[in-house]
Design brief:
- The protein contains four helices and 14 strands.
- The chain is of the alpha+beta class.
- It folds into two domains: 168 residues, no CATH class; 63 residues, no CATH class.
- A four-stranded mixed β-sheet has the order 5-6-1-12.
- Strand 13 and strand 14 form a beta hairpin.
- It is globular.
Length: 232
């Protein structure tokens, strides 16, 4: 099974994050929390502030994917996470939001955005979040009454999930090899993990299937170790 690093291709305007979706099962496997505002107005009241806080993108976290009968793991580096968050704001996408990646919705707006730089001092630690350093954290204001009442307060949606376009690092372009070679780049017992340079040309990097599985295991161990080290 391949493990693919997703990267930005800034030469392509479409590359990057277009919107943030509120979903029932976030691909990043981390939930946001709904924050409430406690005010004193002649008496103590509990008034919903309608702010959702949580991770939008976690670096170096392997995410399983099964798309078009293709199984693989993908992940984002810390540099990609940071740059993607910057481009999201620079392009004015703060109000671009969807529900379950299916319906574009109005009345949601990103009001805070930051890269987590410390496990204990970060604002998210106050709310019991232990996402690793380098995570893109966001707060979103929900003014859409239907979304707040029917999806957030009922717990139907539990986290954020990004929408956008990313390139696969080392992906071979159609102009560089024949289409037939892309369909079946490796012989039996081997599969493609990116590309390599051979005789001055970029060709598929074919590795034994057992080796590719070992690479996935190593990345999973490295991610688990990074989280453990930061918790100590």
């Amino acid at each position: 099974m391949n493990i693919v690093e997703l990267v930005l291709d800034e030469e392509q305007m479409a590359s990057g994050i277009d919107a943030i979706s509120v979903v029932s099962a976030p691909a990043i496997e981390s939930n946001f929390i709904a924050l409430k505002d406690h005010q004193v107005q002649f008496a103590t009241v509990d008034q919903d502030k309608r702010i959702l806080l949580g991770p939008a993108l976690i670096p170096n976290k392997p995410i399983y994917r099964n798309q078009n009968e293709r199984e693989f793991y993908c992940y984002f580096s810390r540099d990609t996470v940071r740059r993607a968050s910057e481009l999201y704001l620079q392009r004015g996408n703060q109000t671009q939001a969807t529900l379950e990646h299916a319906v574009k919705i109005q009345g949601l707006c990103l009001v805070e955005s930051w890269i987590k730089e410390d496990m204990e001092a970060d604002k998210s630690a106050k709310y019991g979040m232990s996402d690793p350093v380098g995570t893109w954290m966001v707060s979103m204001k929900v003014e859409n009454e239907e979304v707040w009442q029917e999806y957030v307060k009922t717990g139907k949606v539990k986290g954020f999930s990004i929408e956008g376009y990313f390139a696969e690092k080392g992906q071979v372009k159609m102009s560089q090899v024949q289409e037939a070679e892309l369909k079946e780049p490796c012989w039996d017992g081997y599969e493609q993990i990116g590309t390599k340079i051979k005789d001055g040309k970029k060709v598929p990097n074919c590795v034994p299937i057992e080796q590719s599985l070992q690479q996935i295991k190593e990345i999973l161990r490295e991610y688990a170790k990074s989280v453990t080290d930061q918790d100590q």
